[in-house]
Design brief:
Blueprint: H1 9-20, E1 39-40, E2 48-49, E3 56-60, H2 62-66, H3 73-78, E4 84-85, E5 95-97, E6 100-101, E7 113-117, E8 120-121, E9 135-142, H4 146-149, E10 156-162, E11 170-178, E12 182-193, E13 196-207, E14 224-236, E15 241-256, E16 267-282, E17 288-307, E18 312-332, E19 338-359, E20 376-391, E21 396-411, E22 424-439, E23 444-455, H5 459-463, E24 465-467, E25 473-475, E26 483-496, E27 499-511, E28 514-518, E29 525-530, E30 535-547, H6 548-551, E31 559-575, E32 593-603, E33 611-620, E34 623-625, E35 644-646, E36 649-661, E37 664-671, E38 713-721
Parallel strand pairs: 7-10, 25-29
Antiparallel strand pairs: 1-2, 3-9, 4-5, 5-6, 7-8, 9-10, 11-12, 11-38, 12-13, 13-14, 14-15, 15-16, 16-17, 17-18, 18-19, 19-20, 20-21, 21-22, 22-23, 23-26, 24-25, 26-27, 27-30, 28-29, 30-31, 31-32, 32-33, 33-36, 34-35, 36-37, 37-38
Length: 722
């Protein structure tokens, strides 16, 4: 089964599969956590060596995935220092990469970071609803990539590449249990018959509410359940043509939503399902190759919430997004060293929402209001082209691309929407990229590039009128412009004798941000507007890995030892659109710096039980945040508009595994070894002295106040491969 990549991926699929299976080689050397001259497809839409790409790409490989204890894609990316992840609840996160942010609920078309599954829109930017099961690898593009992927790719792209019958062999079953009633299981089988291949995977799990770290206690209403399945089938029609089909369903159920008011009864159900058909072909002379990718996506959120401050005992919001699209991408070789990718993307989406509220007191009837999202139908057509030219024996690669997107947003009938607008609003955007790479030596390459991105406003932002959970009201603005971004970057990759380093220096500017602005006067009413001030972020990022024994020319004798590090430092972060009265102009919900470092070592031969021990340290750097929590004044904050600076903190995880017999592996892991009581986002932690305003609690008198991440956690597991 071929991964549903854009054009040209068919030829790269065997190499991608080989890279994913590298840890199984019998040399005793371990594949590094970060492979820095891998073949990647996400940045340019076609398979190319990373050293020939003008932007920064981070790849999380199969070995890193297999040894992670992450229980969602959010946790997986956070432990690899990809960017800022709020980890608001077990089922909800927001993202920020290079200043591009998703909204709090992770709504797909309101995100400045685009999440893909197999190269097409995932339908959500809330990656907490997605399980790591059935994931073969993840490619992250840092910075704009709208030329290939369209609206939303302003700060970065996260491409989740699924397992299939070509990048996975055999069958495996894994079960694990641990702290707070954790119980998870997953299994898959893959194979080939004749010219066809297949993959089937199933995963599920549950966990009770967790306890926070040192000095804390039980975080009531943080439980969750997961269930997902993936099926893939591929058929090689002949030497030149192939068809692939992938179907997937994933979701998190009965997930607690403590939120900023520490609710002990709010619940979420968030699901994502898709169906993909990919046809790929090429000419006999390889002058041209092409891919046609058609897809259907169904993404649904059901929020069973309530708010005492909003006067509700029940506030149910249902949101259902359907996407139907197709991409046709031919690649032609016009002359030696030249490769031209052309693209046509047609897409239509439907958003439908409903909302129901009940009052706190009998008879519970109350006025109904519009859902959080106005109903809309979107249509778009995009044409794009990206050309690359290799020169001087492929030592220099020059590339440039452009995309023109035209679309329309129709305002559909929405329940209880006051002053419902009708008709539609057209929009258009042109984005481009230009850059080049230079291979100075066999081991050292340099790159530079300029890229732009955009995000089109939604119907809610253009014509909405909705009441938030706590009672405030937000109105749409028909005069909104698309958000835009522009990034400059220079970087280098270096590989030598087991050492791999990738470094980048960048500046990303986010313009015309769509924000809600409070009206003057005492009423709790806001309007969507384009912020006149830009966000500008300048920073450096480094990825590195080292095969220690290879570097020192040691004879391993069955031993393996590797080191890895990923990190970034945003040395200049300025929000030129911050209020003049703000106490800080630092960009909010962006790490000033962050890092992930670790080591793995062990013996794979010469011992009765081959074993590996790994340790990972995750530094979550300082962020600035005007929190939604209600804090005490002045003990918690000087005023409700105060922008807090959260300090940096480290979390350390460890894992020991041993191969009891061939194909049977047991492991034990400990997360948050030092029982740190912290949180990526929240200010009012579950510890003393408590700085939250307990009168604003949404607990009905039960449960603990504050929000802290999970404390020390033990996980044990058993995996059988056959």
């Amino acid at each position: 089964m071929m991964i549903a990549y854009p054009a040209g991926a068919r030829r790269a699929a065997p190499l991608v599969a080989a890279l994913a299976l590298m840890p199984s080689i019998a040399t005793g050397q371990e594949a590094p956590a970060t492979v820095l001259d891998d073949i990647v497809v996400t940045s340019t839409g076609r398979p190319e060596p990373r050293s020939q790409i003008t932007g920064t790409v981070q790849v999380i490989e199969g070995e890193r995935l297999a040894r992670s204890q992450a229980q969602s894609v959010t946790e997986l990316l956070a432990e690899n220092a990809v960017g800022f992840f709020s980890e608001w609840t077990p089922g909800q996160t927001s993202i920020n990469i290079r200043g591009g942010a998703s909204d709090g609920q992770g709504k797909d078309f309101r995100s400045q970071v685009l999440v893909l599954i197999n190269g097409r829109r995932a339908g959500t930017a809330n990656i907490s609803k997605l399980s790591p099961a059935d994931v073969a690898r993840i490619e992250i593009v840092r910075g704009p990539a709208s030329v290939i992927y369209g609206s939303g790719a302003m700060g970065g792209v996260i491409n989740i590449i699924l397992r299939n019958g070509r990048n996975t062999e055999g069958s495996a079953v894994e079960i694990q249990g641990g702290s707070w009633g954790l119980l998870q299981g997953r299994g898959h089988t893959a194979g080939r018959f004749g010219e066809s291949d297949y993959y089937l995977g199933l995963a599920g799990g549950r966990r009770d509410s967790y306890s926070s770290g040192s000095g804390g206690g039980l975080m009531a209403n943080t439980q969750w359940q997961r269930l997902g399945a993936t099926g893939a089938f591929g058929h090689q029609i002949d030497d030149l043509n192939r068809v692939d089909v992938t179907i997937r369903s994933d979701g998190i159920y009965d997930a607690g939503f403590r939120g900023s008011s520490w609710s002990t009864f709010n619940r979420d159900q968030r699901t994502n399902a898709s169906f993909d058909v990919v046809y790929s072909g090429r000419t006999a002379t390889d002058f041209a190759r092409w891919t046609s990718h058609s897809y259907l996506v169904e993404d649904q959120d059901i929020f069973r919430w309530a708010s005492r401050s909003g006067g509700t005992r029940l506030d149910i919001n249902r949101r259902h997004l359907s996407i139907m699209g197709t991409k046709f991408e031919p690649i032609v070789h016009l002359f030696p060293g030249n490769e031209l990718l052309l693209g046509l993307n047609l897409e239509r989406s439907w958003l439908r929402s409903a909302r129901y509220r009940e009052a706190i007191n009998p008879p519970y009837t109350m006025a109904q209001v519009a859902p959080q999202d106005a109903n809309q139908t979107d249509s778009l057509m995009a044409f794009y082209a990206e050309n690359s030219q290799r020169l001087f024996d492929d030592r220099v690669v020059l590339r440039a691309g452009v995309r023109h997107t035209r679309g329309s947003t129709s305002f559909d009938a929405t329940p209880n929407l006051a002053n419902q607008q009708t008709g539609s609003r057209p929009y258009s955007a042109t984005t481009y990229t230009v850059g080049g790479t230079y291979r100075a030596t066999q081991n050292l390459s340099f790159r530079t590039g300029l890229a732009t991105g955009f995000r089109a406003p939604t119907a809610t932002e253009l014509a909405g009128d909705y009441t938030v959970l706590a009672g405030g009201q937000i109105f749409g603005n028909p005069n909104l412009r698309p958000e835009t971004s522009r990034q400059y970057e220079v970087g280098a990759t270096f590989s030598w004798n087991g050492l791999n380093i990738d470094a980048a220096l960048f500046q990303n500017t986010i313009s015309h941000r769509i924000i809600s602005q409070r009206r003057t006067g005492p009423l709790n009413i806001s309007d969507y507007v384009n912020n006149a001030g830009d966000i500008v972020i300048r920073g450096v990022e480094v990825q590195a890995s080292l095969d220690v024994l290879r570097a020192v020319a040691a004879r391993p004798n069955g031993w393996h030892w590797s080191l890895f590090a990923n990190g970034g430092y945003n040395f200049d972060m300025r929000d030129f659109g911050a209020a003049s009265t703000a106490n800080s102009r630092q960009v909010q919900r962006v790490y000033k710096y962050q890092a992930s470092i670790g080591t793995r070592f062990g013996q794979r031969a010469g011992v009765a039980i081959p074993w590996t021990f790994s340790v990972t340290g995750i530094m979550r750097g300082p962020i600035w945040y005007d929190t939604e929590e209600s804090l005490t004044v002045p003990a918690g904050e000087p005023s409700s508009s105060y922008i807090h600076q959260k300090p940096a903190f480290w979390v350390w995880n460890a894992r020991l595994e041993g191969e009891l017999r061939k194909g049977l592996t047991a492991y034990v892991a400990m997360n948050n070894i030092f029982n740190v009581n912290q949180h990526a986002l929240f200010i009012a932690l579950h510890q003393q002295p408590f700085i939250g305003n307990t009168s604003a609690a949404n607990t009905n008198g039960i449960g603990n106040f504050g929000n802290s991440m999970p404390g020390r956690e033990i996980v044990v597991g058993l995996k059988a491969a056959f």
